[in-house]
Amino acid sequence: MTKVDYKKEFKQFYMPKTVPELVDVPNMMFFMVDGSGDPNGEEFTRAIEALYSLSYAVRMSYKSEDVPEGYYEYTVFPLEGVWDLIDRTKPPTDKSNLKYTMMIRQPDFVTEQWFQRFLEQTKRKKPNRFLEKVRFESLEEGICCQMMHIGSFDDEPISFARMEAYCEENGFTRVSKIHREIYLSDLRRTKMEKLKTVLRFHVEKS
C-alpha cells in the first residue's frame, strides 16, 4: 500500500508558492482545541501536546488489535492555527490579546466513534487536561488567498500585505482579519529565517 503524504496528495493546500494565489479549500475533518493568550506560554504548549498525542494515537492504531476500518498508512498532517484578537482595538503585536483554534487534520477513516475511542485511550496513556477540550469537527474554508511565508512569524505582516494587494488587483476582498497558519517546519530544528508557514485568509468577490 502506498503511504499517503499530504505534501504530495494535497499539495495545493500545504505546499503553495511564495507568491499569493487563490484556492478553494474543501471540507476537512480536524481535531481542534480553543485557547487564548500568549502562544509562548505553558497553556498553549499543553494544548498542542494534546492534539499531537491524539493524532499519533490514530496514526499508530494499525499496531493495535482494534484497527479502524479503511485504515491506510499516512503522514500525520501538520499543525494549523486560526488566529484572531480578543480586543480588536489593541495591536496584533500584543500576544496576550490573541485567541486561537489550533488543529490537526485527520484522515477520512476517522469517525466520531473512533475519535471517542482514541480520546479515552490517550487520556489513559498520556494524561493531559487539554484532552477534555479537544473536539472532532469539520471545517470548510471555501475561497481563500494563500501563500508560503518563509521566515520569522514577526515578518508575516509583509506577506499579508502582498496577499491583500494581490486580492485587490484580482477583484477580491479580504473578509476579516482572522487568518490561518499552517506550520510546516519543526521550530526546534529550523532556523527562524528558514521557517515555512502557509498563510491563508477568506476572501470574497469585490
CATH class: Alpha Beta
* CATH topology (fold) name: Multidrug-efflux Transporter 1 Regulator Bmrr, Chain A
Secondary structure: helix percent: 25-40%
- Major sheet, described briefly? 6 strands, antiparallel, barrel
Strand order of the largest sheet: 1-3-2-6-7-4
Please report the number of helical segments: 5
Share of β-strand residues: 25-35%
Oligomeric state of the chains in view: single chain
Number of strands: 7
Reported CATH architecture = Alpha-Beta Barrel
What is the domain tally? Answer: 1
Tags for this model:
206 residues, alpha+beta, Multidrug-efflux Transporter 1 Regulator Bmrr, Chain A, six-stranded antiparallel barrel, 26% helix
